[in-house]
Write a structure and sequence with these properties.
Helix content is 94%, strand content 0%. It is an all-alpha fold. The longest helix is centred in the last third of the chain and has 43 residues. Keywords: Coiled coil.
Length: 82
């Protein structure tokens, strides 16, 4: 029984190693392609990345505001009951 489990673990490790190698090759290809990208496109990518960061920060602020709004509504509802 343990031999079967050990064999499965070895198979999983081999599969993971193949997947990691494939991902590494993809990243190398992406890096190669990005090396050929004109400067203005790289700048646009950087600006887009910054915009994504700003959008994420705004989404977090909206979530916090919604949470605060719910708390205020609960407090207001509690005060009305008193």
């Amino acid at each position: 029984m343990f031999e079967v489990i050990l064999a499965e673990i070895k198979d999983l490790k081999a599969t993971q190693a193949q997947e990691i190698t494939a991902l590494h090759n993809c990243l190398a290809k992406i890096d190669e392609v990005l090396g050929q990208v004109p400067g203005w496109l790289k700048d646009a990518k950087v600006r887009f990345s910054k915009l994504e960061d700003k959008v994420e920060a705004m989404q977090q602020q909206v979530a916090q505001l919604r949470k605060s709004e719910r708390l205020l509504e609960e407090v207001a509802g509690h005060r009305k009951l008193q």
